[in-house]
Amino acid sequence: MTRSGSLERALLTALILTIAVIAAFPIVWMVLSSLKTPQESMQVPPVWLPRTPNFSAFSEVSDVIGAGRSMMNSAIIATVATAGILITSLMAGYAFAKYRFRGRSILFALLVGTMFLPPIVTLIPLYRLISEIGFNGSLVGVILPNLANAFGIFLMRQFIAGVPDDLLDAARVDGASEIRIVFSVVAPAVAPAIAALTLFAFVYQWNTYLWPLTVLQGNTDNYPIVLSLGRLLSYNRGAMNTGLVMAGATLAVLPPLFLFVFLQKFFVDSIVSSGVKG
Per residue in 9-32, pLDDT tens? Predict the structure, then answer.
């Protein structure tokens, strides 16, 4: 490697490390602050590392906002909605990619167009529909409109289009039904895209705020963790409660973080694959 090439590589590495540090700093600061005592949180200049890690804020935040129940509500919402999105996206993506029917292009264009609608536009109509069928105030009302997703269908359609038709025809010759072809032949062939969609859908559903706030109507027993954390805003006004707020935020980011670590290989593969396809 030439000297100019080594210098360019060193500068690029330094740039990547700088961006990584800037991106990770708020999360690291949040975790460290959750382990500090109230006195350390109030100290000026700030204390970077807690002298003795203190976990009392985590037990206290569980009592204040019912973190266990809220985490379970978030897990139910995110898991069921993600499963629904995967199933509907696979089936609709397969239909758009492999079936030839009249109006397919127009229907797909309309579907893609819904991706650009601001969520606030559909908020009131969806709320009226959920209220009419009696699901307002419940987790079912939060989950039901999120079982299908235009972005998921678009993503699956793009990847399934690359699955060879000969592979599908061979499965049909062997007597496989269309449903079995989707889940036994097509799904393994687009596994990286499924992993990426799982990550996108779970994180979005876990972090969504406006729709659950609208549907649940103050029913705190069904609040997901994101809404429950909003109740900590009053605690955030006092520096003595900084550890409490940071502990709640730390608990809320753990499940999406673990899911990303588990799926990151597939996620990167899907990005690389989509880049190669152009």
Answer: 889 999 999 999 999 898 898 888
pLDDT of residue 255: 87
CATH number at residue 112: 1.10.3720.10
Give the chain's radius of gyration (CA, Å): 23
In the prediction, which pLDDT does 121 show? 85
Mean pLDDT of 123-148: 91
* pLDDT greater than 50 at residue 203: yes
DSSP the chain: --HHHHHHHHHHHHHHHHHHHHHHHHHHHHHHHHTS-HHHHH-SSPPSS-SS---HHHHHHHHHHTHHHHHHHHHHHHHHHHHHHHHHHHHHHHHHHH---TTHHHHHHHHHHHTTS-HHHHHHHHHHHHHHTT-TTSHHHHHGGGS--HHHHHHHHHHHTTS-HHHHHHHHHTT--HHHIIIIIIHHHTHHHHHHHHHHHHHHHHH--HHHHHHHTT-GGG--HHHHHHTTTTGGGSGGGHHHHHHHHHHHHHHHHHHHHHHHHHHHHHHHHHHHH-
What's the confidence (pLDDT) of residue 269?
Answer: 67
Which residue is listed with tokens 């000026």? 44
Q: Which domain holds residue 118?
A: 3-276
Q: 240 near 35, Cβ under 8 Å?
A: no
Please state the domain count of the chain. 1
